[in-house]
Design brief:
By secondary structure, the protein is α/β, with parallel strands linked by helices. It has three domains: 2-56, no CATH class; 60-332 and 492-496, TIM Barrel (Alpha-Beta Barrel); 342-460, no CATH class. Helix content is 39%, strand content 14%. It has 15 helices and 18 strands. The chain has helices at residues 26-56, 75-89, 100-108, 112-119, 136-140, 145-167, 184-191, 237-253, 297-315, 328-331, 342-351, 365-372, 398-415, 431-440, 481-490, and strands spanning 2-5, 19-22, 60-68, 95-98, 122-125, 173-174, 196-198, 211-213, 216-219, 257-263, 320-323, 356-357, 362-363, 395-397, 421-424, 427-430, 447-449, 495-496. Strands 3, 4, 5, 10 and 11 form a five-stranded parallel β-sheet that branches. The chain has a five-stranded mixed β-sheet with strand order 6-7-9-8-18. A two-stranded antiparallel sheet has the order 1-2. Helix 7 links the parallel strand 6 and strand 7. Helix 2 (75-89) runs parallel beside helix 4, helix 3 (100-108) runs parallel beside helix 6 and helix 11 crosses helix 14 (431-440).
């Protein structure tokens, strides 16, 4: 004798269950056992579907980073220490991008406690002097690719060396001060052993997710996946949590991705930034520097509380993992990918010169150009200058074109850079025109039809040279179209980063 749920085969969990007393015959017992097995199988099948659904959700990586830059206000040292310790209690490692002068000041103030606490996290680099004039975009604006990279390295290598000496590690990443971004920095950073560009601005971006550009893995221009809780209004945390959850839902559904969150330790103890001393291009002597206004103790506690609550909310989600800039390259496929389908990339490059996403790999225009030249793709730079087409015929004799291909491949191998243009006898094809012509060539015809290039990858570079460099520290009206033009040349190296 058992008690059986009435209408067991048509359960409605929104309604109360009715129980009735039942006596079973042997036949009924057999039927009940069959019914039970069927229900159990259905339950197991439903659980398997649920497990498969959960397993299909991609991981969400949160990169939490702190621009550790204020070397004027001593309370900013304590803020960095407090943040590092609070995160350690939560089991979260962040990336602290430290300014060279900040590291030297910590050393001079004998803040070994701060240095030790930050060292238990990840250490990146945030320029040598940050806002002391001239800032990177200002001094690089009128320089070329090679001389600009050399100048950036000259100014910044001492800061990198001091980070290495004081913290004992090569910085995992770099990010520009403010919006003082410049493409020449990429060449110099790779020479200094820094593989990741971690910051936020609008000069270049791709689908609000990490991408490869200039040979570096970039977390930059993250758009809807940049989540920053307001430190001034705790009541807005619910709104921030909802934004975080929407971003995480979307990333899970697409197979995984990155959310970027950043602060400055000085924000937790001051109500204005320390570098307003250098606003609008000003460059006062150190004796004239003024400390930023301080927050009250209650305001600072609110800031720390908001940070902790945000991290706790993110950690509560099963798919979320906090990662540092040093860990990021381990999560993504290599920048150099061997091409397996030459015909596919030829069709693509003949029509437009931009990256290509396939099941076999993700290829930049530079990758595909090398493959079409019969080379194994390696990380290269874009052209150092704009090219020019001076060849006006509609066809090129086969022998002349083969010589041009050999010359282009030789240039790339020797310089690790794409040529601005390719010589065909005494005349030239701009790189985009050469790439389109090469891609459309069948390899057998006695003459090669010349095609006009379509460098579509340039659309991912900003066009507003004033707004994208708008920063209170730059001189009033500062504009840098030359830097954006150079970035368009480096867009040959642009492609999405794909999680392993």
């Amino acid at each position: 004798m058992v008690y059986l749920l009435d209408e067991a085969m048509h359960l409605d969990v929104t309604k109360p269950f009715a129980l009735r007393k039942v006596k079973f015959s042997k036949q009924t017992h057999s039927h009940f056992r069959t019914l039970g097995r069927n229900l159990l199988l259905r339950l197991l099948f439903a659980l398997l579907l649920l497990a498969a659904t959960l397993a299909a959700k991609g991981p969400v990586y949160v990169v939490l980073w702190f621009d550790t830059e204020d070397y004027i206000e001593p309370a900013a040292d304590d803020a960095a220490l407090r943040i590092a310790m609070e995160l350690e209690k939560l089991g979260v490692r962040a990336t602290f991008k430290v300014v060279g002068e900040k590291a030297r000041v910590l050393e001079a103030r004998d803040r070994r406690d701060v240095i030790r606490a930050l060292s238990r996290h990840d250490i990146g680099y945030h320029s040598n002097f940050h806002s002391i004039q001239p800032t990177p975009a200002l001094y690089l604006r009128d320089m070329g690719w090679l001389d600009g990279a050399a100048e950036f390295e000259r100014r910044e290598r001492p800061g990198v060396a001091d980070i290495q000496r004081i913290f004992g590690v090569t910085p995992s990443c770099y990010g520009q001060p403010g919006s003082s971004w410049a493409p020449q920095t990429y060449r110099a950073l790779l020479r200094m052993g820094i593989p990741v560009y971690l910051d936020e601005a609008e000069q270049v971006g791709l689908d609000d997710q990490p991408f490869w550009f200039g040979g570096m893995l970039n977390v930059f221009h993250m758009g809807r996946n940049l989540i920053r809780p307001s430190l001034d209004d705790e009541s807005r945390l619910a709104e921030t949590f909802a934004k975080f959850d929407r971003a995480a839902d979307e990333l899970e559904a697409r197979g995984g991705g990155v959310i970027s969150t950043y602060f400055h330790p000085t924000e937790f103890v001051t109500s204005a930034f320390w570098d307003l001393n250098f606003a609008k291009g000003a460059n006062p002597e150190r004796s004239q520097w003024k400390n930023p206004p301080r927050r009250s103790a209650e305001e600072s506690e609110r800031c720390y509380r908001i940070l902790v609550r945000y991290v706790e909310h993110a950690k509560a989600r099963a798919s979320v993992h906090f990662v540092t800039a040093r860990q990021l390259p381990l999560l993504y496929e290599s920048a150099a990918v061997r091409v397996t389908d030459r015909a596919q990339i030829a069709r693509h490059m003949a029509e437009r010169q931009t990256f290509l996403v396939t099941d076999a790999g993700v290829f930049s225009a530079a990758d595909m150009l090398q493959a079409l030249l019969g080379m194994d793709p390696v990380t290269v730079e874009g052209p150092a200058a704009p090219g020019e087409t001076t060849l006006h015929e509609t066809e090129i004799p086969r022998a002349a074109f083969e010589h041009a291909k050999t010359d282009a491949a030789g240039f790339i191998r020797s310089s690790h850079r794409l040529p601005a243009d390719v010589w065909v006898g005494s005349r030239k094809l701009a790189l985009a025109d050469f790439a389109a012509t090469l891609a459309a060539d069948d390899g057998t015809s006695p003459a090669v039809a010349v095609r006009k290039g379509n460098p579509e990858m340039q659309k991912y570079i900003a066009t507003d040279a004033t707004r994208t460099f708008d920063w209170p520290i730059h001189p009033e009206g500062f504009s840098a179209p030359q830097l954006l033009d150079m970035a368009r040349l480096q867009a040959w190296t642009l492609k999405p980063a794909r999680l392993k």
